[in-house]
Amino acid sequence: MAKQDAALTIEQYKIVLERIAGCSAALESVLAQAIENDGQEVANLIDAGKMLAVYIGGMADNAVRPGGALIGDYDRWNYGKRYAEAGKEVGHG
User: Fold this and answer.
1) Containing structural domain, residue 37
2) pLDDT tens digits along 18-74
């Protein structure tokens, strides 16, 4: 995902919020299904719910401040803190 230095426009915020609302509805549906199932299906639904939560969080965080203001940028949301730290260890010189 491309990094941005400028704030989002009103139209971009609207697009982000629409996507967050859609993903939140999907997350609610996944969690409702998990309540009604058991075994491996529940594990799969929980994984899907976690994925949606990361997606929603990454979108919201980037909308607050491009580059991430709460947890971090989109890479931090998807790959965790160790991902960024691993990049610091690589020397290019």
Assistant:
1) 10-80
2) 999 999 999 999 999 999 988 899 999 999 999 999 989 888 888 887 666 778 777
72 C-beta neighbours (distance < 10 Å), count: 20
Tokens of 44: 């799969």
Q: Could you tell me if residue 41 is inside a domain?
A: yes
**Greatest pairwise CA separation for the chain in angstroms:** 55
Q: What is the pTM of this model?
A: 0.70
The distance of Cα 63 from the centroid of its chain, to the nearest Å, equals 11
Count how many domains the chain has.
Answer: 1
Do 59 and 16 touch, CB atoms closer than 8 A? Answer: yes
Is the residue at 17 inside a domain? yes
